[in-house]
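A.,

Following up on our hallway conversation. Structure tokens first:
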């Protein structure tokens, strides 16, 4: 069902330990995001890293570790593999409002940007509310996707 397991938080006696053990027994990769050693929910991932789980700081760490055939399948399914021009349509595509076009202009389909990075890039042209509104509207329109941690990536 899965290639691996990513553990972000897990207490000492959580069911995540069982999940990680089962993943190892089934020859699946185990990834863990390290946490503050004084936080109870960081015990699980920190211990898993000590036991050989792959230290994971960003989504790229997992992406780069995936087998190439799996990455190709995901790229094809998500439409990231080719730059095929869009199909002909009976309906004319309306141009984007300028604030949406500016936000979409800083995003890429192959690199996620965190909300703070987007704000920095556009601080001279747009106000914070305009950026938030544009992100929301573009996400509703399917032009971008929000990833965990307030990261955004352009959709095709």
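Then the amino acids I'd put at each of the 156 positions:
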């Amino acid at each position: 069902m899965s290639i691996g397991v990513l553990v972000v938080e897990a207490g000492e006696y959580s069911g995540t330990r069982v999940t990680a053990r089962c993943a190892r027994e089934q020859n699946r990769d185990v990834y863990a995001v390290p946490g503050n050693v004084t936080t109870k929910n960081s015990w699980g991932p920190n211990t898993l890293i000590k036991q050989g789980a792959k230290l994971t700081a960003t989504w790229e760490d997992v992406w780069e570790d995936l087998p190439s055939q799996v990455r190709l399948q995901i790229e094809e399914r998500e439409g990231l593999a080719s730059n095929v021009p869009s199909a002909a349509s009976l309906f004319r595509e309306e141009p984007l409002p300028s604030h949406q076009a500016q936000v979409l202009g800083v995003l890429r389909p192959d690199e996620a940007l965190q909300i703070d990075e987007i704000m920095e890039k556009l601080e001279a042209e747009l106000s914070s509310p305009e950026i938030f509104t544009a992100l929301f509207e573009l996400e509703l329109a399917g032009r971008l996707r929000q990833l965990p941690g307030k990261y955004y990536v352009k959709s095709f």
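The chain has a mean pLDDT of 86. Curious whether your intuition agrees with the design.

B.
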